[in-house]
């Protein structure tokens, strides 16, 4: 049938993922670093995602396309909302544990690195249990996975005393992250959420994920947004 449907200009798309959470039908995903229309039948053609693209890569065109299937779209969204917390193989990466640290942080000496400030495992947002004890009433750190490589004093400056969840807003499933983070905020009564991301445009998707998760959870939480440059400096907070 001839109808209106989303069109994505891949040359303009930088894969930031800001459009994904705004599509309530789950029609958009980041695949191979670009926004893609998963299935025509999931797109209602109303263009709720248009205003969220900073590069103007999304538009609405009228062309031959499969009819929008509201029921199929709902089932698709429901499937994506089910967090997969454990792997059937019992892989050690999914086994939640709290790490013991010295009461006083290690002091840096010439040629000697400081002690790690990581207080739990795992750290990947896909794998952390939403109700883990280290999240309870905590100051949660949500970090783009490139940040610790660019910021030399990341452990001392941000990680000390905080639980952390790590993810890539460009390459991972943004809607899954919204749902998973909202569950953590709801079940663990998190006090504050600090988002630390790189200055590159695609990394700002982590901010949108955090904001969408807070709105979905319906909780009051202190929020801070920190930008790190590729040269390893804190640009703004």
Descriptive notes:
With 237 residues, the protein is of the alpha/beta class. The protein folds into 2 domains: 80 residues, Alpha-Beta Plaits (2-Layer Sandwich); 128 residues, Rossmann fold (3-Layer(aba) Sandwich), CATH 3.40.50. Helix content is 23%, strand content 22%. Strands 8-7-9-10-11 form a 5-stranded mixed β-sheet. A two-stranded antiparallel sheet has the order 1-4. Helix 5 packs across helix 6.
Strand percent estimate: 15-25%
CATH architecture of the largest domain: 3-Layer(aba) Sandwich
Q: What is the domain total for the residues?
A: 2
The helix/strand series, from N terminus to C terminus, equals EHEEEHEEEHHEHEHEE
Instruction: Measure the end-to-end span.
Output: 49 Å
The class by helix and strand makeup works out as alpha/beta
Q: What is the helix tally?
A: 6
Average predicted confidence as pLDDT: 86
Helix coverage percent: 10-25%
Unreliable sequence segments: 84-89
How many β-strands, per DSSP?
11
What is the CATH top level name of the largest domain?
A: Alpha Beta
CATH fold node name of the largest domain: Rossmann fold
CA radius of gyration is 20 Å
Q: What is the global morphology? A: globular
Q: Largest sheet, if any? A: 5 strands, mixed
Strand order of the largest sheet: 8-7-9-10-11
